[in-house]
Amino acid sequence: EPEVTQTPSHQVTQMGQEVILRCVPISNHLYFYWYRQILGQKVEFLVSFYNNEISEKSEIFDDQFSVERPDGSNFTLKIRSTKLEDSAMYFCASSGELTGGNGYTFGSGTRLTVV
Amino acid sequence: LAKTTQPISMDSYEGQEVNITCSHNNIATNDYITWYQQFPSQGPRFIIQGYKTKVTNEVASLFIPADRKSSTLSLPRVSLSDTAVYYCLVGEGKGYQKVTFGIGTKLQVIP
Questions:
Q1: What is the DSSP string of B14-63?
Q2: B85 CA to chain A: closest CA distance, Å?
Q3: For B81, which DSSP code?
Q4: Does position A98 have pLDDT exceeding 90, yes or no?
Q5: 3-class SS at B68?
Q6: CA pair distance A35, B42, nearest whole angstrom
Q7: Chain A hits for B95, Cβ within 8 Å
């Protein structure tokens, strides 16, 4: 079964540092997403990406966040200057044209800890 | 997007059938109903999707009445490994649309 792969599984960083979270979506998927989940809270939408540009973003996705698809396989989320409140699980997801059958496929997440 | 309402938590003994009902009174004609499962520290995982009547796969069944204002996820003979949060989502099922997660139903399976 195709998977969305995320690296690293756990990242610890100091406040103010830049981090890059990496994702390899399913190869024939067209739409890519980042979500986050603060411990004990809901899974929250951050951003969606299609055709090499952002298609939608949430209020959380402010100027300190950026996404990129640097090559044909990777999809990255960069946080320029991390804050303590950025500590969360970050999930990458991808989907095809229609989500029937398999829905969105989520990765297993990167746990980001900002200290 | 149609708002969904589901119980915050449920407990069940191992081996029992579990039914989790989700209300979605404002579901639109083009909306599908999709359920996801999330284990601690893992990403949500698709379980099942349906539009009307009944859908069954190797994991679960989804019952949708004629008015489609609610749906019931049925998990047959649950085991401890089914302890997870279950989310009901409603949407058109288009790949470009984000999914919006609610709080979900935390299912605790008891030995």
A1: TT--EEEEEE-TT--TT-EEEEEEE-TTS--EEEEEESSEEEE-SS-EEE
A2: 11
A3: G
A4: no
A5: coil
A6: 12
A7: 29-31, 95-99, 104
The one-letter amino acid at B37: Q
CB B64 within 8 A of CB B33: yes
CA B72 to chain centre: 7
Nearest residue in B to A107, CA atom: B43
pLDDT band at B94 (very low <50, low <70, confident <90, very high): confident
Distance of CA B8 to the CA centre of its chain: 12
Residue A109, CA atoms < 13 Å, CB-side half-sphere: 21
**Residue B101 and residue A43 in contact, taking contact as beta carbons nearer than 8 Å:** yes
Which pLDDT band, with edges at 50, 70 and 90, does B99 fall under?
confident
- pLDDT at position B1 is 57
Determine if the peptide bond prior to A2 is cis (ω within 30°).
no
pLDDT digits (tens, 9 = 90+) for B7-31: 999 999 999 999 999 999 999 998 9
Q: pLDDT confidence of B2, banded at 50, 70, 90?
A: low
Asked if residues A23 and A35 have their Cβ atoms less than 8 Å apart, the reply is no
- Nearest CA to A17 out of A107, A81, A70 is that of A81
Would you give the DSSP letter of residue B59? Answer: S
In angstroms, rounded to a whole number, what is the distance separating the alpha carbons of residues A65 and B66? 44
d(CA B36, CA A39): 18
Over 70: is that where the pLDDT of B41 sits?
Answer: yes
B45: which chain A residues are within 8 Å (Cβ-Cβ)?
A: 106
Give the position of tokens 């950026």: A66
Instruction: Tell me whether residue A69 is exposed, middle or buried, using C-beta atoms within 10 angstroms of its C-beta: 0 to 12, 13 to 18, 19 or more.
Output: middle
